[in-house]
Amino acid sequence: MPKAGEAEDPAMAFFRTLPPEVIQALMGVDARYLASAFEAIETREGGWERYTREDLGLSAADEARLKSIMLD
């Protein structure tokens, strides 16, 4: 929410106009979509390591930190 006297971010103003089911689709998690994404990553040459290093630009240390945050 914007502070008093500040203009609302136009993207957030638009987001508020969306129906709840659209917001759920955009913000929710569907296990089938995740499984498909992971499968697509693994079928590419280099698999997960290539995806994290080249596509996301993460170092091994970055990936270890993310795992620590997300899995603990």
- Major β-sheet profile: none
Overall average pLDDT: 89
What is the CA-based Rg, rounded? 18 Å
Number of E strands: 0
Strand content: under 5%
Explain what this protein looks like in three dimensions.
This protein is mainly alpha-helical and 72 residues long. The protein has one domain (10-71). It is 67% helix and 0% strand. It has five helices and no strands. The longest helix is centred in the middle third of the chain and has 13 residues, at 31-43. The two termini are 31 Å apart. The mean pLDDT is 89.
How are the SSEs placed, and which strands pair?
Elements: H1 10-15, H2 20-27, H3 31-43, H4 47-55, H5 60-71
At a glance:
The protein has 72 residues and is an all-alpha fold. The chain is built from five helices and no strands.
Properties at a glance:
about 70 residues; mainly alpha; 5 helices
